[in-house]
Design a protein that fits this description.
heterodimer; A: 280 residues; mainly alpha; B: 428 residues; alpha/beta; Rossmann fold; Coagulation Factor XIII, Chain A, domain 1; six-stranded mixed β-sheet; five-stranded mixed β-sheet; 9 helices
C-alpha cells in the first residue's frame, strides 16, 4: 500500500537533519516565549526593568575603578568609563546568551516531558529575549557616548559602527551555539553547569573587554584574535570610539568559528532532544 | 467490496528499553574512561568485575514489541495496570522520547494532552496563556485567533480571562487548559487521564466534546484512563496492555472485563490478619480477621442465589448493639447499593465474634461485583459510626435461564422489581 505519512518516528534520525523547517513552523511559539519571558521577568520586583541597565552600569563603574584607577591599565586615551562600557555591554550580552540557553533542558524538563514541540524554539527565544535586553543596554551606552562626545572627548566614530547589527547577530549565534552545546551536555553531566559561569568569567580575560589590544605584542594579539569574541568586541569598540586594531581576516575566521559552533550545537541538541527525558 | 478503512497510526514492533539503576557514569571523567577503554578494546575500568557491558539484567522493557493499527475516526481506549507501558506508548507517540527499536507511522498532526496546562505561566493572564499553550500544542497565533471565542466560552472562565492564572482556582485552571486542548485542529488527539480533574459536569462536557469531534470531524482519539466509566462513554475500541505488550485488542466491554480480571483475584476467603492493606480504617473498635463464602467452592452465583458470608472479628472495646453493612460495588469500585443488619451482637472487649450473614442478590444484574464491609454502630442521632471498614470478596452473578439479556450500559446494575399493571379502572 502506498501511503503518505505525515511523520515517521524511528529510533534515530539522520545526524545531519537539522530540522530547521519545523522550527520555522513554530515561529509563533518563539515569539510567545519571548513575550512571556519579557512580561514575567520583572513582575513583582522593586526596580523592574531598571535592572536591565543597573547591571552593566555598576560593573562598568567597578571596572573603571579597579582596572583604570587602581591598576592603571591603558585605555588608549579614551575616557575609561566609556572604554569599559563599550566592551562590557556586548560582553554582558554574550555571556547572558550562553548562561540562559545553557540550562534549556534542565529548566524546561517539566514541559518537555509532557508535550512535543521543537525544543530548539526555547533557546532561540531565550536568545531573542537577550537581544531586547541588549538594545536597552546599548541605548544607555549611546546616551553616555553622546554625553562624552559633547564634552569633547577624543572620540572618532567611523563606518565600522554601521556593522553593529552584524556584531549583535553574530554574538547571538555564537552564544546560542555554545549555550545549546552546554545544555546538551548538562542533561547527563550536571557538573558542567557549575563550569559555565566560572568558564565565562575566565573567558572574559581572554577577550579585550577590560584591556586595550594595542598594549599587546603582535604574537599575543594574533592569538587573542582566534578567540571568536575578540574581533567582535574590538571592532565594535573601534567603530564607536575609534581606538584599537581591527582585522577583517580575523573577523572572517570568527564567523567561520561561529557557524561551526552553531552547526555542532544543533546536531548535538537534536540528538539529545530525542531521549533526554530518560536521562535528565 | 467495502472500502478499506484509512489508517491513522501504524505501529510496527515498537520497543522501548530503559536502563535500570544509575544512568550513565554520572561524571564526565567516568564516561570518558569507559569510552577510551572501548576504543582500545580494553576492559572498561568502571565496570564491576564479572559483569558484562550492557548486561540484559540492567534493562527494563517498558514496551516489548508492540504492533498496532489505528484507523481514522476511531476512539481507542488504552487500559492496563500501572507499569504496563501505557504512558510510555503515549510518550513515544507524542514524541516526548524516542523508541529504542521499531517505528511509528503517523498520518495527520498529533497533539497530546499528557497533562493539561503544560507550559501555563502563573504570571500571565488567561488570554495570554491560551495563546502560549496553543502554540506549545502546535497552533499558530492565527489559528488561536479564530477560535479564541469558542475556547473562552467552553472554559467557562470569561469573567477572569484577563486575570493572571495564578489567581485561578485549580478547577478553573484545568477548565481553561482543557478548553485550549479540546479546540486543537490536529487530526489525532492523545489524552492521558486529563479528565480525572474538574467537576462532574465539566467532565461530562469534555467527554461529549471529544465524542463530538471524533464523530463529526472524523478525528482519531487515543485515551488512557483508569476510570472505566469514561472509557465506556468515550471509546469504541479498547486495548489492554500488560508488561509492555498488548494482551487484548477489541470491544470495550470485553477489554474492561479482561482488565478487571487481572486486577482482582477471585478469592473465596480473605485472611485479614495478613492483608492489612485492605483496611480503610485502622484500630477502630473492631478488627476483622476473616471472611469467607459459606458452602461455596467459587465466587460465582446464579442470580437470586443466596450469598452467604462467614465473618470473624475481634472486639477492641466493649461492643453493644453492633451493626454490619455490605456495600456492593462494580469492579471498578463504583457503589451500587448497600445492605444493612442492625443490632445483631453485643460483646466484651477482647472477645472474638463470629457471625454468618445472607445477602439477597436477586436485584443485581448479571455481572462482576466487589464488596466492602463495615462494622458500625448507630448513635442517638441516627449517625453512623464506623468501627471497622475494609475491602471484601468479589463475586460474579450469572444470568439465570429465564432472564432477559440485560443491557447494563443503559439499564444499570440494579434490576428493580417488575412493574405491576394496575387493573383497568377508568377514573383514578
Amino acid at each position: 500500500m502506498n501511503k503518505q505519512w505525515t511523520a515517521v518516528i524511528r529510533p534515530r534520525n539522520s545526524l545531519l537533519d537539522l530540522r530547521l523547517k519545523e522550527v520555522w513552523r513554530y515561529r509563533d511559539l518563539v515569539r510567545l516565549f519571548v513575550v512571556r519571558d519579557f512580561k514575567t521577568k520583572y513582575k513583582q520586583t522593586v526596580l523592574g526593568p531598571l535592572w536591565f541597565i543597573i547591571q552593566p552600569l555598576f560593573t562598568t563603574v567597578i571596572y573603571n575603578f579597579v582596572f583604570g584607577n587602581i591598576a592603571g591599565l591603558s585605555t588608549d586615551g579614551m575616557p575609561g568609563f566609556l572604554f569599559y562600557m563599550a566592551g562590557n555591554v556586548p560582553w554582558l550580552y554574550f555571556s547572558t546568551c550562553i548562561t540562559n540557553t545553557s540550562n534549556t533542558f534542565v529548566s524546561n524538563a517539566a514541559v518537555f516531558g509532557k508535550v512535543y514541540f521543537p525544543r530548539l524554539t526555547t533557546p532561540i527565544a531565550t536568545t531573542i529575549t537577550a537581544i531586547i535586553n541588549f538594545v536597552i543596554q546599548f541605548a544607555m551606552f549611546l546616551i553616555f557616548w553622546v554625553y562624552f562626545f559633547i564634552n569633547g572627548a577624543a572620540i572618532h566614530i567611523n563606518w565600522v559602527a554601521a556593522l553593529t547589527p552584524a556584531f549583535i547577530i553574530q554574538m547571538a549565534i555564537l552564544g546560542l551555539g555554545f549555550g545549546i552545546i552546554i545544555s546538551s551536555l548538562t542533561t547527563k553531566y550536571r557538573d558542567l553547569q557549575v563550569l559555565v559561569s566560572f568558564g565565562i568569567s575566565l573567558w572574559m580575560y581572554a577577550t579585550p573587554v577590560i584591556f586595550a589590544s594595542s598594549s599587546l605584542s603582535d604574537k599575543t594579539f594574533n592569538l587573542l584574535m582566534l578567540n571568536p569574541m575578540s574581533p567582535i568586541i574590538e571592532m565594535m569598540r573601534y567603530g564607536w570610539l575609534g581606538t584599537g586594531r581591527i582585522s577583517f581576516i580575523f573577523w572572517g575566521i570568527s564567523w567561520i568559528t561561529t557557524f561551526f559552533v552553531l552547526f555542532i550545537g544543533i546536531i548535538m541538541f537534536n540528538k539529545v532532544e530525542k531521549t533526554f527525558m530518560d536521562t535528565v | 467490496m467495502e472500502k478499506e478503512k484509512d489508517i491513522a497510526i501504524q505501529i510496527n514492533d515498537l520497543k522501548k528499553r530503559y536502563r535500570l539503576g544509575v544512568i550513565g557514569g554520572g561524571t564526565l571523567q567516568g564516561d570518558i574512561q569507559s569510552w577510551w577503554a572501548r576504543i582500545r578494546k580494553k576492559e572498561d575500568p568502571n565496570l564491576k568485575i564479572g559483569t558484562k557491558a550492557y548486561s540484559k539484567n540492567e534493562t527494563f522493557m517498558a514496551l516489548d514489541g508492540l504492533d498496532l493499527t489505528i484507523y481514522k475516526g476511531e476512539r481507542l481506549g488504552i487500559i492496563g495496570h500501572n507499569g504496563a507501558g501505557k504512558s510510555t506508548l503515549l510518550k513515544l507517540l507524542s514524541r516526548v522520547t524516542a523508541p529504542t527499536e521499531g517505528e511509528i507511522k503517523i498520518d495527520g498532526r498529533i497533539s497530546s494532552m499528557l497533562e493539561v496546562g503544560t507550559g501555563f505561566n502563573g504570571e500571565l493572564t488567561g488570554r495570554e496563556n491560551i495563546y502560549l499553550n496553543g502554540a506549545i500544542l502546535g497552533m499558530t497565533t492565527a489559528e488561536v485567533d479564530s477560535k479564541i471565542e469558542q475556547i473562552i466560552e467552553f472554559s467557562e472562565c470569561r469573567k477572569f480571562i484577563d486575570t493572571p492564572v495564578k489567581r485561578y482556582s485549580s478547577g478553573m485552571y484545568v477548565k481553561l487548559a482543557f478548553a485550549v486542548a479540546a479546540h486543537l485542529d490536529s487530526e489525532i488527539l492523545i489524552m492521558d487521564e486529563v479528565l480525572a480533574v474538574g467537576d462532574m459536569t465539566f467532565q461530562k462536557k469534555c467527554l461529549n466534546k471529544m465524542s463530538e469531534v471524533s464523530q463529526t470531524e472524523g478525528r482519531t482519539i487515543l485515551y488512557v484512563s483508569h476510570n472505566m466509566n469514561t472509557i465506556r462513554q468515550l471509546c469504541d475500541r479498547c486495548i489492554v496492555m500488560d508488561h509492555g505488550k498488548i494482551i487484548f485488542n477489541g470491544g470495550v466491554e470485553e477489554a474492561i472485563g479482561i482488565y478487571l480480571n487481572i486486577a482482582v483475584n477471585d478469592e473465596i476467603e480473605i485472611d485479614y490478619t495478613r492483608k492489612k492493606e485492605l483496611f480503610y480504617m485502622h484500630d477502630g473498635g473492631i478488627t476483622s480477621s476473616l471472611v469467607r463464602f459459606l458452602n461455596k467452592e467459587d465466587n460465582i452465583f446464579a442470580r437470586g442465589e443466596k450469598l452467604m458470608l462467614h465473618l470473624e472479628w475481634k472486639n477492641n472495646i466493649d461492643i453493644s448493639d453492633l451493626c454490619f453493612r455490605i456495600e456492593v460495588l462494580t469492579r471498578d469500585r463504583a457503589p451500587i447499593g448497600t445492605a444493612m443488619i442492625y443490632n445483631f451482637y453485643s460483646g466484651k472487649k477482647g472477645e472474638i465474634g463470629r457471625s454468618d450473614f445472607v445477602l439477597d442478590t436477586s436485584m443485581l444484574a448479571p455481572g462482576k461485583y466487589a464488596m466492602t464491609y463495615a462494622f458500625f454502630s448507630k448513635n442517638e442521632f441516627g449517625n453512623n459510626i464506623n468501627l471497622d471498614n475494609m475491602k471484601g470478596l468479589n463475586f460474579t452473578i450469572i444470568r439465570s435461564e429465564n432472564d432477559i439479556l440485560w443491557d447494563k450500559k443503559n439499564w444499570g446494575n440494579v434490576m428493580l422489581n417488575n412493574i405491576e399493571l394496575l387493573p383497568a379502572n377508568g377514573d383514578r
